[in-house]
Each structure stands twice: as C-alpha cells, then as structure tokens.
Design a protein that fits this description.
Blueprint: H1 2-13, H2 19-28, H3 33-45, H4 47-62, H5 66-90, H6 92-100, H7 108-117, H8 122-151
Helix pairs in contact: 1-2, 1-3, 2-3, 2-8, 3-8, 4-7, 5-6, 5-7, 6-7, 6-8, 7-8
Length: about 150
Amino acid sequence: MYSDLFIAMLWSISPLGEAKVGIPYALLNGINIYLVFLFCFLANVMVFPIMTFFLDVINRYFIRWYYYKKAAIFVARRAKVGAGNNVKKYGFWGLMIFVLIPLPGTGVYAGTIAGYLFGLERKKAFLANSIGIFISCVIVWVGTIAAMNGFN
C-alpha cells in the first residue's frame, strides 16, 4: 500500500502525468480513496514552489547553455500559447481555469511557467494554481471512482 501511494505521489509530481495519472494509479491499486485524493493533491501542489525556485534560481544559471536555452524557449512558447490569452486577459481567473482543465499540458507546470512569464504576483499565482489543481483533482478523482464503480 505504501509503495503504491508513494508511486502515485511521484506521478503527481511528475510533469508527465501530474495528479491526472497519480489519482487513477492509486485508486486502481486499491488505496483508500480519501488518502489518494489528499496525497496526490498535496504532491501536485508541491510542484509550484519547486518550479518557482527552479525558475528564479536554477534557470538563470542554465540559460547560458545553448541547448538548455533552446528547450526553455520552446517550453515557454508552449505555455504562452496554451495559457496566454486567458492569463493575459483574465489574470488570476484565467490561470486558475487553465490549470483546472484535466488535459495534458494544462497542469501546474504550465500554469507556473505562464504565471511567471506574465508577471502574476507570486501569491496570486500560487492560489490560482492551487485552486485549479484542487478542482482538476476532484474531476479526475470523481471520474475515476465513477468509472471503477461502473465496471463492477
């Protein structure tokens, strides 16, 4: 049980899946539905401070390297294209709505980068990301439980 919960948390922190993969993984492995929600949500929220630190400190060092800079510009453009109009026009609410959509490329990683690029105040960006993550987790959690109950 603990190893499955830990793996679900790793999925929730991972940019490859976030809680959109962590929650179904844990639920399908029989972990308590409330523990799944709590731990996957908290793991996904932890991404914001990690990414903010990365953007503030580590990014400034690595941006000097050609291949890193090329990849960083690619990721920044994708975040701007995905969230750009909403965040630019609606600020906090646009970022929150962007993050809450449980589709690939709309999670906290892209939301943190978009908030950073558009100069959103850090506390507002964190709150928008956290609310968006919460709603996204609820959608995935309820959807997975409903699908599991429908198959029984």
